[in-house]
UniProtKB/TrEMBL annotation:
It comes from the Bacteria. Residues 34-43 have a biased composition (Polar residues). PROSITE patterns: PROKAR_LIPOPROTEIN. This is Secreted protein. Residues 44-62 have a biased composition (Basic and acidic residues).
Amino acid sequence: MKARRALTAGLLATGLVLTMSGCGGEDGGGGKNRASSESTSGGKSDEGNKEQSHEPTEEKVLAEVSNSDARLVINSAVRDQGGFLTVSGTVTNISGKFWNPSQWRGDEKELNANGASMAGAALVDKAGKKRYLILRDTGGRCLCTQFTGGIKPNEAKPFFAQFPAPPQSTTDITFQIADMPPADIQITEGE
């Protein structure tokens, strides 16, 4: 459990670093980045400010979908050089009662031991006409978050799910899990 938490924290930190690295520099696009940074900093310019701000940064949202039980927010979909693609974000219980996403573990018999988890997630490459299932170890445990103990009302929990990476030419994919609506997202390249 500690290893999963550490991996999740590492993935979120990587996502933040990638998000922050994309925010600097001149955009040459007529001030689009300037307007964006003004909206996140309350319209104040950071020019001449030599101290680094310690205000919390807002995470990038690639997609947000919901049903009557939960809201799923995807913050990153990062392809690494090892041939994997890691999707991460948060799941919030909006049902108003305790929720155990056991149906998210998927229908495959091999995945039954994963309990309430992201094991039933899949990626769909519409252009390449391929479906990518979640990665698992030799014991059938998914390389994903398990929601041990369920999710309390209004509680948000971070998640990650790891898949085989689609070809480099694929940048747009669809994330699917159980009864949630499909979420269209864009892949970013890791380091």
